[in-house]
Amino acid sequence: MVSAVLFGIQLLVTIVVGIYFYTQLRQQRRAQPSNRRESGREYERLQKMRALKLSEPLAERVRPTKFSDIVGQEDGIKSLKAILCGKNPQHVLIYGPPGVGKTCAARLVLEAAKKSNGTPFLANAPFIEMDATCVRFDERAIADPLIGSVHDPIYQGAGPLGVQGIPQPKPGAVSKAHGGVLFLDEIGELHPIQMNKLLKVLEDRKVMLESAYYNPDDTGVPRYIHDIFKNGLPADFRLVGATTRSPQDISPALRSRCMEVFFRALEPEEIADIAFHSAERAGFTMTREDARMVGRFASCGRDAVNIVQMCAGLAQMENRTDIRTEDVEWVVYSGHYAARPDQHADTRNRVGVVHGLAIVGSYQGATMEIEAVAQPGCGRLTITGIVEEEELGAEGRRIKRKSTARSSLENVMTLLNGMGYHTRDYDLHINFPGGTPVDGPSAGVAMAVVAASALTGRPVDGHVAVTGEVSVRGLVKPVGGVPGKVEAAERAGLSTVLIPQDNRMERFEHTTIEVCPIATLEEALTRMLLPAGAQAPAGSAAAPSQAPVPVLAAEEQTAAGNG
Predict the structure, then answer these.
(1) Quick check: is 485 catalytic?
(2) Alpha-carbon span 260 to 102, nearest angstrom
(3) pTM to 2 decimals?
């Protein structure tokens, strides 16, 4: 009797379970056609989306396809070739403003490297491009598109291997770039943890992955997964990082592993050339004068293309194929583009005005007028247009100090007073026009010259520019950025530039401008100060009515100091 009851219960349970699974199977079979139909509709929708394409943007149509299309970066491209096209290519950091061709240059240099003799790059070497600002970073290491990650079996969608409890390594961009180039744009924005991981990969040339679910003794784990966990994922590539930041803002550990290349900001004439040819590729005509107007307002090639694109839209609205001056003016006005300052120098000989040189933006040289006025007084010193105070050091230990520009001026006044200039009988005001605060000791010689001019009434040679730090002994010390400063003086239409003796380079002998190395302030004063009244135009800065004070020899000053 008991056996019959148990048999009945077992039969009932079997029937219930059978009915359940039969019902599930029927529902699954019914769902499959529905899923197929839905999948088919989605696929058709996707194909329709792929078939629908808008016209190609002008920015893509004018994108450089060969080195000659990249304007104004001959030196930067030459440096990239020297680093990547040899037998031992190195990691590179490219500094430069946006829209000057850093990405296109890196891509073209890799293609050139593939064809160079002895190169380790194969013909199919990949060029993997990522933007560091968009790299998704997960502290749990669930997903890491840059370095790579492990898909553990507990995560949704682990697949057949996950069902078996097997972790699955997922390669990141560093492994996909194996044997080629990883271009990481805006590398200065990379998360610090990601930066440290990247540095480790650069050092080891492989990615080591870990998982709590990996068992090295599990024979069910595929052979390639055992190999990855044991030996790592290959990641032997060359990093090309691009940034708009300054070198001091980039990780020192990264900089120590990379060569550094600098792309400069484009000149107005170069941007005008980009605008002119962009209009041609868009099927519109533009005069060179209108292109030069674009160059005066656009800060980079990308800006120029955008202005031309909008001007072309205005012309098309009126069924025209020519871009007119009023089109450019309207776009510049409506887009709130600021005019770039004219770099052409005023070469008149003036009292209390000197051409100084500076580095602005992305290591680009620029000329600047430094002006001074001396009035009878008690030796009061005023300087405007400079950084008054600066901070040094990292968080937790910051040091505030007087700006190097102001310190340099105090050195100048001490030196001029010792050389016989009546600095204590006059109030002196030195100004750096332009609106952007100036800092650095490289304007020391220029300040000394303009102060001496204001104190003596002797005009300064308007065809000469000068850069260099001056010591209290009258010696001219070396400064940075001299090649860019020489180029700026050349562009400004000056004939001569004075530089520190220790900054002399052979390349300056092949420039159209005369480059004169100087070792002492005496040489600068002798070369730049003209006799009182020599071609000084009416209306120039007023100067005190005192006779020119003879300049004492620097050697005498040094001897006096040593005595």
Answers:
(1) yes
(2) 13
(3) 0.77
